């Protein structure tokens, strides 16, 4: 695609009257959208509004039931992703489990589009690595090229998918929640790349539930609701109006004031060293407290949570819960004793293939509680479905019922099911790793309310790369840097100032 | 909450789904009726029971295979475990002069032990399932012959050291394979029914079954949800090994001697039964009921063809054709569009 | 340690031969190999014994391997001529004498040892006619592609031509891991479908066992009778069972086959000529003889029937008898 | 973006890794030396070439299996395709009196067609790989016998209609299996080497190979990245079918007649070869070089044991023991902790 003469007024891609139904679910009910060259359009919408469905149609991975797509003035229809790519549409999909192939190296996954498309016929490890380096360099990505994709964390997978899409030199770039597992540092870096691409005349459709992201880069916001475009906002975008259009009510995303809690200490971390050579740190969690940890990619947030849950061991130091030493031997040990964890990668950590029993919403929620709910061993599906039905209504999960399999749900709704699983039983310590990935603002407020509401006698430790999110949910925010915890500036005044102080801590400009 | 339909958008989906669910039942019924018309003797109860008896061993082995499959593994050693059990049972009775009860217990223990060995190789050492059980398969195929130097085992046989074996098959042992309850139902059929019902209950109606399937679907997810996944996978192989040796006991008690065989055809038939089971009730996954039905399906086909005096070589062919047809029907109707 | 008075190279000892069998397992093979070992030991021969396990291509490889090994002689036990002619010739070309048992290599330099499958089938079928008359509904258990079975089956076909009263109303059979049990299952279907069945010809004892199992299970032992081929200790016991439907079988002693093969090869190695064709006669064994003579094992059969125990074929003064 | 510390922080990892990479090579070398000492004739070039010749068919089939495995499938039909090819080649020459070239082309085309049928069943109809190829396996096992009514095919055979076959094996055809280049290297070995090199090049050095692996790793991801995944999977089965029929041609030209066989042992040996290949170079995935080495490994073992006059039943046993040992070594050393 030649991008020699960027003309801001030129329409790069437009869709009109797109419809798509999955069984009785109408995911799209006549959506219209226009993206001009050199423009970044934010696509907003609650979970299950149909955003990803639209993306999948535009990228050729599913076909629409009705409607037309116009690309560069010509009506097109894509029978496969390769046709969409050939036509100049590059896509980063929401699901990080589809970002690359296991068994292939990082280098091979970075060049996957070329390998699967029309790259050089003859390849060698060296030629692939060389090309992969170029692709990675375009977004400043630095990953060991020989590592197997299966060993990557979701954030890294997401970055690979982004690098690939950026390298595709497409005329239309679609990003479906590209920053859902990235920290603000990486997200900033991505925005710089996107601005550069925009300047070179590429049309960008950007989907995110992080209003901060959208405020930073979007030229225009389009709100999708019930499979239809219901509102459109030009810059400067009025986000509270947009959110109202999305979820039908307004939200005030205020931070909790960090008044020091005097409740008894429930769990504590003592002189913990996460990796050899890291600085030891302490952490006290008080009963009823919600504490968030932020930090850049790979800083060790997940590692701390995993160590508490019994999936990893500390190099030095230890934990106590209720004053007694806590050394978990693994998930089953922890779960029995009321320590629950939601792992960061919901595909790898929670979802089951649709054909097996227990892949339904009811089964997913019940899985860790089976021994407690059914001590005799004999299942009682009514019990499971009751719990699921409650979760569906409490969290507003958009599904047809407790027997829906999770692959039929939108990304955000899957995440809600995964969270609902751990609210289905009383707990002492709840460990949430990136719990709000892909969850829309409305649902996030509901979830936060639920988490905060169930806090008596238990504590919650949240690892999140999104500072905004951390401020919204937590009583206290800590920053993880180089596998060690630092206290962020305790008193956050305005939201913006608070974000600033946390981000400063992330990059290490604050002494602690 | 709402009515449940599959993912397909077509309005016919519920019809197609019903067709898919029951395709194999309908085919089975058609086959029964067809054979009945062609050969009235087909439908008499003695013949129907002899079909069930004929498939019992394959069905029992198939149940084991499908349990390991549901836990995300694959047991290629079931055939050779069964074959070794035949040899072991004969050796215990004929050479070591044990009685029926001792023999059965020891052979079942042997099957469980082999399963345990498979499981440890897979879970502890980290060898991929197919690879580990393939190795066991070869190992057993050879091992079973070593005690007798490759001879089959019969009463009065000459041992490698030149002496004569003094024991014989315990008549009580032969009951398992040869006698009938109420003079009608062969014991192997009862054993098969028991195995099927218990395994079905375990896999579909208890939380343990759930966990087996969860492990097969996503081992990490099951582990994070607190399931002791390694223990479960071990148990899957132990169950499979025990069931295979149970199958071997039935063969031994029918045949009444220890015959040399690698068990390959038993393996393939058991795998076939559990794979055909995928299509039963449109489950698209291994399951006990499907496996048993798959075995019966093939058994009816072969019995009917034999009655009609079809040349033996057409049997494999017809087996293949019917398989392809049933599969195409089941899966073709349920094709998910992208 | 050589053999005093024997021609070279046996006088010095250290002769190595290869014995390549097409079969992979079974009592017949075990007995054959036992015979080979006995006679080889008596002659001071070291025998390298290998089996192709029903894979004709493998049998070629094994013969080739024996040539590579530089043995003094090769015994080919069963197989198929098309596949073996050229490797057998290669052995001859390498100066290695070859004898073949039950596979017609069609080479003047290679003596053929035969047990005559045709004779065995004929013996037992004649007995069937003696017992059951010239008119009966018969069935045969048969799977094509196994040379001895093919030859025995051909005799059954000839009998049908000769005696129009014999009708083949059913043919069945299967070769798998559980031959006896599978054939029993099939036989039950056949019995249900063909109530008039009177005689079953089983050209392999494994088949006979399956048929017997089915007849016992169906409780028709007084109506349906088995005429088989081959014998072993467990076959003898099966035939002796009270009310056993298995009336007769015909067999050669596989151990004798093994001994004869080694003797013939030894003569060739010593530069003598055992003759181009060495025939081993089969013996008919009926239920009645077994019971009348109280024969319970192969060993007792050998003791009572010297013809079964030993053969005069390929004997020489310098060749010691096998022990 | 950020600094990356590897999870395996231990200093011994590179040593263990090297050990794992070359474990099978070292074992092979040890075996060669061991057999050489025990039996000097083992190491002469004629014997080494006859080992290679003996494994050529299994290696060629194994390459096909490993290609389908790398694309996330599994071809259970290779054994019966090879067996059917033997029958087909014999039928074409002996009954239809075709010459060597015609026969080879037709048989290869048949193999490709069967592969295509497998692929369509899997990709179009949506039958799971194992199930579809299992059905094909049974179908072919019967089908190959129908033209001749179950008889083996030899020159001068009697046809089912009572006439005598007039053709015979074309002497040119026999060259493929029986002759040697420069009177040293058997042609099957050359064919195997060619297949191995071409397949290795295809799988490791071309874009296509990467796509096969990508599909095996995550079909959706490969599809989203623009790969025509269905076409690739079809091609994997076509390649596998063609290679299997090539293996069948070699068998036919060695054996010189059409024999009834289900090809089960070929299947199991081919699968074993490609599974052992997982351990070669510590790749933990199917690959061509590993498959060929796996086949040679087993071939050397069996040849050596035969030379040492080990009873046949110890062969399977030793095969199993060595497999378990090699696997435990390779995988045990590289155990990944979760
Ligand atoms: N394969 C499918 N089968 C059935 N229903 C589906 C399928 N895919 C999506 N849906 C339904 O279509 C609707 C729209 O889903 P979509 O993934 O487009 O939402 P989304 O706007 O991307 O939401 P999120 O913000 O949670 O990612 C949802 O109700 C979802 O349940
Ligand atoms: N599966 C893995 N394989 C290899 N290295 C890993 C893996 N998981 C974590 N690491 C390493 O452990 C360190 C800490 O990672 P961790 O996942 O705890 O970071 P994080 O702060 O949660 O980052 P993210 O925001 O990406 O989730 C990193 O240096 C990372 O490279
Ligand atoms: Mg989405
Ligand atoms: Mg993390």
Automatic annotation (TrEMBL), chain A:
Keyword Translocase: yes
Residue intervals of the ABC transporter domain: 13-251, 263-507
InterPro entries documented for this protein: AAA+_ATPase, ABC_carbohydrate_import_ATPase, ABC_transporter-like_ATP-bd, P-loop_NTPase
PROSITE patterns attached to this UniProt entry: ABC_TRANSPORTER_2
Gene Ontology molecular-function annotations: ATP binding
Keywords, in A-Z order: ATP-binding, Cell membrane, Membrane, Nucleotide-binding, Sugar transport, Translocase, Transport
Keyword flag Zinc-finger: no
Name recorded for this polypeptide: Simple sugar transport system ATP-binding protein
From TrEMBL, chains B, D:
Compartments where located: Cell membrane
Transmembrane segments: 21-42, 48-69, 76-98, 104-123, 130-150, 185-203, 234-256, 262-281, 288-305, 317-334
First-listed, main subcellular location of the protein, grouped into a coarse class: membrane
Keyword Transport attributed: yes
Lipid bilayer topology: Multi-pass membrane protein
Pfam families assigned to the protein according to its UniProt record, in alphabetical order: BPD_transp_2
Keyword tags: Cell membrane, Membrane, Sugar transport, Transmembrane, Transmembrane helix, Transport
PANTHER family reported for this sequence: ABC TRANSPORTER PERMEASE PROTEIN YPHD-RELATED-RELATED, RIBOSE IMPORT PERMEASE PROTEIN RBSC
Protein name: Simple sugar transport system permease protein
């Amino acid at each position: 695609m030649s991008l020699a003469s960027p003309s801001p007024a030129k329409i790069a891609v437009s869709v009109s009257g797109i419809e798509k139904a999955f069984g009785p679910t109408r995911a799209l009910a006549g959506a219209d959208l226009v993206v001009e060259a050199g423009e970044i359009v934010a696509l907003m919408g609650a979970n299950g509004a149909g955003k990803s469905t639209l993306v999948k149609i535009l990228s050729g991975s599913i076909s629409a039931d009705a409607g037309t797509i116009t690309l560069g003035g010509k009506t097109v229809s894509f029978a496969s992703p390769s046709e969409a790519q050939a036509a100049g549409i590059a896509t980063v999909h929401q699901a990080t489990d589809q970002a690359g192939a296991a068994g292939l190296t990082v280098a091979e996954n970075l060049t996957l589009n070329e390998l699967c498309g029309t790259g050089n016929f003859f390849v060698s490890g060296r030629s692939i690595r060389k090309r992969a380096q170029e692709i990675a360099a375009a977004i400043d990505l630095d990953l060991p090229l020989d590592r197997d994709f299966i060993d990557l964390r979701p954030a890294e997978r997401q970055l690979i998918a982004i690098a690939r899409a950026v390298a595709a030199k497409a005329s239309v770039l679609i990003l479906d929640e590209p920053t859902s597992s990235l920290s603000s540092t990486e997200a900033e870096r991505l925005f710089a790349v996107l601005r550069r691409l925009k300047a070179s005349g590429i049309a960008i459709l950007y989907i995110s539930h992080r209003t901060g992201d959208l405020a930073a880069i979007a030229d225009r916001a389009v709100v999708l609701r019930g499979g239809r475009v219901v509102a459109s906002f030009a810059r400067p975008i009025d986000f509270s109006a947009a959110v109202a259009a999305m979820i039908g009510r307004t939200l005030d995303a205020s931070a909790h004031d960090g008044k020091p809690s005097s409740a008894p200490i429930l769990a504590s971390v003592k002189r913990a060293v996460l990796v050899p050579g890291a600085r030891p740190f302490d952490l006290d969690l008080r009963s009823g407290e919600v504490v968030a940890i932020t930090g850049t990619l790979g800083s060790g947030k997940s590692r701390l949570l995993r160590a508490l849950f019994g999936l990893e061991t500390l190099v030095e130091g230890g934990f106590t819960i209720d004053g007694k030493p806590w050394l978990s031997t693994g998930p089953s040990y922890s779960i029995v004793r009321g320590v629950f964890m939601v792992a960061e990668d919901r595909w790898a950590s929670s979802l089951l293939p649709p054909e097996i029993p227990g892949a339904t919403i009811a089964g997913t929620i019940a899985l860790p509680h089976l021994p407690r709910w059914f001590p005799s061993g004999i299942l009682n599906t009514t019990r499971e479905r009751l719990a699921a039905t409650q979760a569906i209504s409490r969290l507003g999960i958009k599904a047809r019922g407790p027997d829906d399999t999770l692959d039929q749900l939108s990304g955000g709704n899957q995440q809600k099911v995964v969270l609902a699983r751990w609210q289905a039983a009383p707990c002492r310590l709840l460990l949430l790793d990136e719990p709000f990935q892909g969850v829309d603002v409305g649902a996030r407020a509901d979830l936060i309310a639920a988490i905060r509401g169930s806090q008596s006698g238990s504590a919650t430790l949240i690892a999140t790369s999104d500072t905004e999110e951390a401020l919204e949910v937590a009583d206290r925010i800590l920053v993880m840097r180089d596998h060690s915890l630092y206290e962020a500036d305790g008193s956050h005044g305005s939201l913006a100032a608070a974000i600033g102080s946390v981000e400063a801590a992330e990059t290490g400009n604050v002494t602690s | 909450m709402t009515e449940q339909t599959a993912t397909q958008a077509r309005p016919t989906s519920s019809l197609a789904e019903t067709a898919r669910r029951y395709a194999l039942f309908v085919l089975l019924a058609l086959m029964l009726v067809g054979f009945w018309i062609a050969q009235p003797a087909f439908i008499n109860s003695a013949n129907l029971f002899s079909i069930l008896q004929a498939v019992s061993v394959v069905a029992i082995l198939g149940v084991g295979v499908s349990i390991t499959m549901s836990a995300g593994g694959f047991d290629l050693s079931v055939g050779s475990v069964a074959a070794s059990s035949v040899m072991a049972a004969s050796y215990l009775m004929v050479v070591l002069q044990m009685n029926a009860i001792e023999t059965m217990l020891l052979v079942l223990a042997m099957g469980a032990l082999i399963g345990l060995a498979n499981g440890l190789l897979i879970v502890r050492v980290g060898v991929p399932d197919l690879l580990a059980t393939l190795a066991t398969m070869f190992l057993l195929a050879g091992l079973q012959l070593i005690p007798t130097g490759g001879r089959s085992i019969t009463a009065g046989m000459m041992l490698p050291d030149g002496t004569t074996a003094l024991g014989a098959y315990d008549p009580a042992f032969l009951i398992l394979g040869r006698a009938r309850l109420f003079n009608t139902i062969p014991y192997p059929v009862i054993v098969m029914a028991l195995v099927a019902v218990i395994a079905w209950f375990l896999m579909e109606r208890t939380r343990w079954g759930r966990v087996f399937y969860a492990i097969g679907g996503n081992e990490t997810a099951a582990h994070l949800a607190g399931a002791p996944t390694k223990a479960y996978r071990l148990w899957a192989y132990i169950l499979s090994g025990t069931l295979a040796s149970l199958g071997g006991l039935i063969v031994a008690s029918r045949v009444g001697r220890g015959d040399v065989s690698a068990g390959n055809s038993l393996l393939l038939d058991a795998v076939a039964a559990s794979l055909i089971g995928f299509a039963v009730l449109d489950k698209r996954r291994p399951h006990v009921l499907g496996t048993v039905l798959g075995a019966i399906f093939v058994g009816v086909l072969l019995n009917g063809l034999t009655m009609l005096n079809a040349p033996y070589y057409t049997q494999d062919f017809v087996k293949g054709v019917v398989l392809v047809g049933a599969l195409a029907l089941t899966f073709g109707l349920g094709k998910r569009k992208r | 340690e050589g053999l005093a008075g024997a021609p070279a190279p046996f006088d010095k000892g250290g002769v190595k031969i290869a014995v390549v069998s097409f079969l992979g397992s079974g009592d017949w093979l075990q007995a054959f190999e036992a015979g080979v070992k006995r006679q080889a030991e008596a002659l001071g021969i070291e025998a390298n014994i290998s089996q192709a396990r029903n894979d004709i291509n493998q049998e070629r490889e094994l013969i080739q391997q024996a040539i590579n090994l530089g043995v003094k002689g090769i015994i080919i036990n069963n197989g198929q001529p098309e596949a073996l002619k050229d490797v057998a010739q290669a052995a001859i070309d390498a100066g290695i004498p070859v004898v073949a048992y039950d596979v017609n290599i069609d080479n003047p330099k290679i003596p053929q040892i035969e047990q005559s499958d045709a004779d065995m089938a004929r013996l037992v079928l004649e007995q069937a006619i003696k017992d059951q008359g010239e008119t009966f509904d018969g069935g045969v258990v048969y799977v094509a592609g196994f040379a001895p079975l093919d030859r025995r089956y051909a005799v059954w076909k000839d009998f049908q031509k000769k005696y129009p009263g014999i009708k083949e109303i059913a043919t069945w059979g299967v070769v798998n891991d559980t031959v006896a049990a599978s054939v029993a299952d099939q036989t039950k279907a056949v019995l249900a479908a063909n109530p008039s069945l009177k005689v079953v010809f089983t050209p392999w004892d494994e088949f006979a066992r399956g048929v017997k199992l089915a007849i016992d299970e169906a409780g028709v032992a007084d109506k349906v009778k088995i005429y088989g081929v081959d014998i072993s200790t467990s076959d003898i016991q099966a035939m002796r069972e009270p009310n056993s439907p298995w009336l007769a079988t015909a067999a050669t002693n596989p151990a004798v086959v093994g001994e004869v093969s080694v003797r013939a090869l030894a003569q060739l190695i010593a530069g003598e000529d055992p003759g181009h064709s060495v025939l081993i006669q089969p013996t008919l064994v009926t239920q009645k003889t077994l019971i009348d003579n109280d024969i319970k094992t192969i060993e007792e059969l050998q003791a009572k029937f010297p013809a079964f125990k030993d053969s005069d074929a390929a004997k020489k003064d310098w060749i010691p008898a096998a022990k």
